[in-house]
Specification:
Blueprint: E1 4-5, E2 10-11, E3 16-17, E4 28-29, E5 33-36, E6 39-42, E7 46-51, E8 55-59, E9 72-80, E10 84-88, E11 95-98, E12 118-125, E13 133-135, E14 147-149, E15 154-158, H1 161-168, H2 174-181, E16 184-189, E17 193-198, H3 201-212, H4 219-229
Domain Exosome complex exonuclease Rrp40 N-terminal: 29-64
GO biological process, one term: rRNA processing
GO molecular function: RNA binding
Length: 231
Amino acid sequence: GLVKMAPNTLVLPGDTVNISASDKKKYVLGPGLRKDGERIIATKAGILKQRSPGTYWVEGRQKRYVPARGDCVIGIVTAKSAENIRVNIGSSEQGSLSMFAFEGATKRNRPDVQVGDLVMAQVLTANRDMEPELVCVNSYGKKGILGVLRSPTAFWMRLPIDLVNRILCKDCPLLGSLGRRIPFEISLGQNGRVWVNANTLKNTLAVCNAIASAENLTAREIKDRCAQLWS
């Protein structure tokens, strides 16, 4: 018989994935999984992840991120004190983010940031043996694209850093093509983390799947595939 893989186990392409009985009627598949008749099959190697309600995806291995000054990164808040926030950005050292490095932040008016939140931040300083210093404002004190990323219909995923850099290229048609089909907002972290938010979780995951599937395509193939979407 088939061995069905449970969440938080390593899956390989072709493995059948087990969906809990309570999710059987209604579930959504994120990157790395597809339906094959009645079965759900892994399409890439990685750790099978699950989030309620009924969301399943495969998280691949990722190279360690090396912070560089000016990079925009997506981090997870791991700890906070009165003046400082610790942020996991996927590098060997955690990032340090001042409570006052947010738009309009003062001693009396502190930003609403909780442990577990996702933040889009910019690397201000990055030296080899020191923790990277992060900010959530630009040089004019404005947040722009930076700050806490929060939405009930959002999803974040890890992608190869070179894929993120390819998507960030001005002539990459992927996001524009997808946006004509499903309106969405996206934050692309140069540390290989991507946050997507559409009007429903199902639409969000459709966008995530399309972006993740571009991993093995050349720039030319991405252009061709986007052209097919509109033919």
